Amino acid sequence: MRMDIVIAGVGGQGTVLASRVIAQAAMDAGLAVRTSETIGMAQREGNVTSHVRIGDPLYGALIPDGAADVLLGFEMAETVRWLHKLKKDGRVLANSARIIPVSVTSGRSTYDADSILDFLRSNTNNLTMLDATELAIRAGNYRATNTVLLGAMSTIPGLPFEAEGLLSALLATIPAKLRDINSRALELGRQAVEVL
Amino acid sequence: MTRKMLLMGNEAIARGAVEAGVQAATAYPGTPSSEVFSTLARFAREYDYYAEWSVNEKVALEVAAGAAYAGARAIVSMKQVGLNVAADPLMTLAYIGVKGGLVLVVADDPGPHSSQNEQDTRVFARFAKLPVFDPASPQEAKDMTIAAFELSEKLRLPVFIRPTTRSCHVCQDVTINETGPRNRIGFEKDPSWVIFPSLAYKKHKWLNEQQETTRKIFNESPFNKLELKTRAGIITSGVAYNYVREALDMLHMEVSLLKIGTPYPLPDEPVLQLLNNTDRVLVIEEQEPVVEDQVIAMAWKNGVATQISGKNDRLVPREGELNVDKARDILMNYFGLTGSEKFLAAIGDSQPAAGTNGTTAAPERPPLPERAPILCAGCPHRASFYVFKEAAHRDAAVFTGDIGCYTLGVMPPLSAMDTCLCMGASVTVASGLAAVEKDRKHVAFLGDSTFFHTGLAGLVNAVYNNSDITLVVLDNRTTAMTGHQPHPGLNRTATGINEKHIDIAEVARAVGVEFVREVDPYDLAAAREAAIAAMEHKGVSVVIMKRECISIVKPVKKCTVDHEKCIGCKKCINELGCPALMPDGDKVTIGNTCNGCHVCGQICPVGAIGEVVL
């Protein structure tokens, strides 16, 4: 059993927590894991990725191009930026919410949302989009966007661990006072994919 | 009892030190090394050892050396450029040696991801004539840490662990073991602790002999593994081993493979065994040809005719980091597997998704927004740069920068940094510029932690030599970029509350700065007034911009735009470049990352930006 997951997003969105939670859930299920995360300067609103590799054989933590089973996109343009990591027929779960960088608001770059969305739709065979940021706000805090997406991911068939494993790994990682919001966010993410 | 935990490579190194019975730990933070010591600081009470964030890497190494002189097992951690600061004690400590095990963790950053250069610590280890371990994974980093303590005591030499970003910031299920016994402490007086020219000569001879002793030990090391299979071979070191193994699997290839975990001194037995059983060998390692050059020397010395390739014939890049895709391309090139047909046949079922790698006709990817790292919403540095830029009439003055979050002040629209070199160089480079460019203002910017690291010496130098510069200390009450470590200006240390913090303004006055002003950058009017006065002052002036990093305080307010009042001039967006400010049709709106600093509200020409208490 092998599964490779790429998480793409913007610094500050909680991609590191997400990859740790997935890895912990896989470990709890008795599987070997590797993660690689963007930590340091690139965190400050820059584009960030986490790689999670589960199973055997495992070598390095970096997932080669065209090899990811799942791409978890925390932001629409970032999902497209890392689409080359996905294998043919790989699954994409993407936040439809956009984070407009300062390079765009100050006119040095563009964010053509329509053509980015078109590209995403026409270049994936297995795409699920949800407004994870909106669902996180509904759960109690926009910062729970990462948890909503973990909830969405828990519905993927063939996941090497039980969906409940993600919740227990998450609850074990975060402070007690955030557990209610995150439990709600996880559930909203799960429901959002199930009704689609 | 053994169990497994999900640990980052840096945490695994810390755990290895704890299991090895560490008694003293020191460090200066720097990505990607910082979590080695943060983890050690967290467990210092539980396992009862000394732990300090030192003011800089030289100090950290010397404190750790002192502990090791007394027989303690000591670990010191830093990033690759930090080792340059510690080079002075390092080069002679190799002659003097240690009693207790001393492990130097120096994290390299090929890429680079968060560094100003890509220097290779293995080269430094060879220069200092000290052994170095090169871990491929967190588990190996932990095992190597324990082995490094043992080797250090056996050789009486400091020993390096050189992880890279892809072993520091990689997590793995790591085995946790019991902790071992502790060394007995007791410094024994002996002339051999006092370096002196006549002793240096004797010790240099001893150090040179230790190279061959180490090589013999490394010949038996479990971290070097040789698999003989074919007449063509690969030698690979550190994380590159992972990429090579996976690329070989991808290509369904089997070759003779030598994994090196101890790149200096390179063990000669496995290398010669490989060379003697192959016709050609390719060396794949990140950064400099450290292993490769030693392999070439060994082949030459032993009269082996095996052809050796790698960086010297440009098959393997020296710049940037490697990955599986690059390793595959290197292997395909070396073995003549060119052409996509062969490649696709070889990789079988792992074809990329359509349109992303040119495998099927697909629309071209639309341009994506540029998303470089920038200062956070509400970052007090933004306000500091803004007022100085304004006070300096935009581009008239030269702004010298330094290493920290505030290096991001270089990004437009602030564009408030004209130079950046290394830790502490803001103030000294400004002094140099001011010495020759007398008709211009020179303003140096550095952070509070950087001030204590190496900025202080530059400030003393500027006062002593009557430099006409302004030093702006961006005092955000933490070492923000590397994960919010404490520093001497704060009332806490690595392990608890500190009653003696050092006040930067008092230090500046004490060394003779006549103009010292402390101001809150969120108060734009007061900050602007201080900036103007400081730049008008002849001689050294110091402005301390004091305001906590937004990441260490909970926001109590948030800003909102009154769309009735907003005239859509976008001055706030265009001049501040705060990521919370966004255009909303003709107007401006404020997103949920706002921290309520209200700097935008103070520059709005029509007073359209108000605050709400959360």
Question: Short summary of the structure?
Answer:
The complex is a heterodimer of chains A (196) and B (614). Chain A has 196 residues and is an alpha/beta fold. Chain A is 40% helix and 22% strand.
- CATH homology superfamily name of chain A: Pyruvate-ferredoxin oxidoreductase, PFOR, domain III
Corresponding CATH superfamily of the largest domain in chain B: Thiamin diphosphate (ThDP)-binding fold, Pyr/PP domains
Largest interface: A-B, 67 and 67 residues
CATH class of chain A: Alpha Beta
Report on this structure:
- The complex is a heterodimer of chains A (196) and B (614).
- The mean pLDDT of chain A is 94.
- Chain A has helices spanning 15-28, 76-81, 102-105, 113-122, 132-139, 145-153, 163-173, 179-195; strands at residues 2-10, 33-37, 47-55, 68-73, 86-95, 127-130.
- In chain A, helix 1 packs across helix 7 and helix 6 (145-153) crosses helix 8 (179-195).
- By secondary structure, chain A is of the alpha/beta class.
- Chain A is built from eight helices and six strands; from the N terminus they run E-H-E-E-E-H-E-H-H-E-H-H-H-H.
- Chain B folds into four domains: 3-219, Thiamin diphosphate (ThDP)-binding fold, Pyr/PP domains (Rossmann fold); 225-347, 3-Layer(aba) Sandwich (Rossmann fold); 380-552, Thiamin diphosphate (ThDP)-binding fold, Pyr/PP domains (Rossmann fold, 3-Layer(aba) Sandwich), CATH 3.40.50.970; 557-613, Alpha-Beta Plaits, CATH 3.30.70.
- The longest helix of chain B has 23 residues, at 197-219.
- Classes of the chains: A alpha/beta (196), B alpha/beta (614).
- Chains A and B meet through helix 1, strand 2, helix 2, strand 5 and helix 3 of A and strand 8, helix 11, helix 14 and strand 20 of B.
